[in-house]
Amino acid sequence: MSHLSIDTVVTPPEWAMLERLLIDAQVEAIAEFQTKYFDSRGYLLCIPRWGGNDGPDDAAENMLNWTVLYALGADRDVLDRYRVCWEGHLQQYTEAKTVEVEMARDGMYYKEFPVMFDWYHHGEWLSSFILEGLADPGDRIYNERLRRFAGLYMNEDPQAKNYDPEHKIIRSLFNGSRGPLLRKATALDWAGDPVEIEGRFRPGHGEGTFAQMLDHFKDYNDVVGDHPLNLGATTLGFNAYALTGESKYRDWMLEYTDAWVERTKANNDLIPSNIGLDGTIGGEADGKWYGGCYGWGFSVINPANGEWSHRPACLSRTHYSFANALLMTGDFSYLELWRKTIDIINSNAKEIDGQTQYPRGYGDDGWYEYKPEPFSTGAFETYYWSQDPADRERAGSNPWQNYLDGKDDSYAVKALHCDLSRLQTKRAMLANDLSTPDCRMSDDMNRINPATTDALIRLMLGGLPTGRDGYPLHCRVRYFAPDRQRSGLPEDVAALVTSMDADSTTIELVNLNQVTARQVIVQGGAYGEHQITSASTGGETASIDDRFFSVDLAPASGCEIKIGMKRYANSPTLAFPWS
Fold first, then answer.
1. Burial of 230 (0-12, 13-18, 19+ CB in 10 A)
2. Could you read off the pLDDT of 343-390 as tens digits, one per residue?
3. Which residues have a Cβ under 8 Å from the Cβ of 106 and sit 6 or more positions away?
4. CA nearest to 66, candidates 31, 110, 99, 35
5. CA–CA gap between residue 47 and residue 553 (Å, rounded)
């Protein structure tokens, strides 16, 4: 492994001190949060329920960002607490059973996976688990669990025939460890068992009664057949491949993704929101390519306010699925599908009241739900992946990109101050929460969860915040502490990505410890997908030609390093550099 030695003494920058403060403060805050809202077994102190309004996925979201925070460099205590809570909630929701909802009467989890639900919610449930591989890929239980989860979509489990290899479809929007739901879904399937609401609970969608909860989901019926949200399952294939290197996971993931690419081409470059059990576009939606629950034309009345609510979730996260294939193969053509989606939607703009407006949905009467702003879901991410100037034009203005372009030197400090302020607000919310467990829904605490990583991912890694979408980490660089044999920055070390282009990434590294040297390994990408070609600092350039290199930081030292790289040149792996 190539080494750089840095001994230039620097005055500790404000951003570096704020970064370490934000990381360390969250460790203490997570301990407070866990102590208040989980018991010693890791069971969440709430009423466990099934459903899309308040269900197991929301319970798991109370651990959102914990694993990636550890992978950034937080204390081991964060990972240990996550594992207690993750294991506890798996047991809790395996024991939790519905009375009236058919699919979960024997347990909401089976084989440690939701019995049957949609990938909008599966993705949210899996968000922390997917990123656990960045923290400790050698964990045996994690390895076994990830293989089992991926196998649910590769027909390795005889009880979970979710995938049809002949037509290359996942057979229903509702799928999981007990297989696909091959009938129309009911409002009860989505809302869960009857529950007292008024004066006791505060449902996240604003309903005041259980009857309103049922009304919220009364039109969520057409789930049979494949749906773009199911592409979220490719994250399991991606992660299993990155963990094991076994080609079967890669092969399945690309087979399923490529089938969606072909369907989209056959549908005039618009991704269909329903594929029939026979493989035909719109086959379970009366031939309508835009049909089905969460489809292009899915608009319903919100019973909480009586207004129309447009929910084409087929457009909300799907771009990340094609980026899974880019991460796996380095083939940038996987981005073309989403470029065309954005362009086609916006090409159907029209003048309304003297203003150009752009559609969001497509139904029986054509394009609808016009808004003044162009459709831009996934536009910035597409530019991030491609670094193509044409994609930058679609993406529009972005404060983080402005900073990377050298237009706002204060961005890093402002972003870190903002997240520190957000953390203080959450700690105050935690202290002022007087609720009792029997009056809590599982998602009540989501807003209080103190793990706040968006700014850290952007600034430290040059990455896209992982959020709650259930996809891998996309970033330019990642760090390891070789002396402690762990992922993340060594203690006292801070890192800042200051600029990026298609072929290089510039970072600053600072050792805040005034007496002790630190060593940090810098890797290209979260999964070693970027090949590092060179590292330039202090007027000298070292040839690298590897996934990573090492930097020795003398006490109180710092440097700027311009890293040359070939992006997406390597197969992804979760292996640590010394493995």
1. buried
2. 999 999 999 999 999 999 999 999 999 999 999 999 999 999 999 999
3. 97, 115
4. 31
5. 50
25 token code pair = 């403060």
Those residues whose C-beta lies under 8 Å from the C-beta of residue 531, and which sit 6 or more positions away, are 524, 545, 546, 547, 565, 566, 569, 570
Give pLDDT tens digits for 513-523.
999 999 999 99
The candidate with the shortest Cα–Cα distance to 563, out of 493, 497, 480, is 497
> What distance in Å separates the CA atoms of residue 52 and residue 119, rounded to the nearest whole number?
11
Residue with tokens 């752009």: 358
CA 44 to each of CA 33, 61, 86, 351, 442: distance values in angstroms, whole numbers, following the listed order: 11, 11, 10, 51, 7
CA distances from 35 to 42, 45, 285, 308 (A): 10, 10, 48, 41
Q: What is the pTM of this model?
A: 0.97
CA atoms of 49 and 58, how far apart (whole Å) = 10
Alpha-carbon distance 419 to 166, whole Å?
48
Q: Assign 285 a pLDDT band (cuts: 50, 70, 90).
A: very high
CA–CA distance, 427 with 448 (Å, rounded to integer): 7
Task: Say what the alpha-carbon torsion angle 464, 230, 61, 326 is, to the nearest 10 degrees.
Answer: -20
**The pair of three-digit structure tokens given for residue 375, joined into one six-digit string:** 């459709």
What span, in angstroms and rounded, lies between the C-alpha atoms of 77 and 31?
8
Q: Taking a C-beta distance cutoff of 8 angstroms, is the pair 183, 293 a contact? A: no
Written as one letter, the residue type at 65 is N
Question: Contact at 8 Å (CB) between 492 and 518?
Answer: yes
User: Cα-flanking dihedrals φ and ψ of residue 342, to 5°?
Assistant: -60, -45
Written as one letter, the residue type at 484 is: R
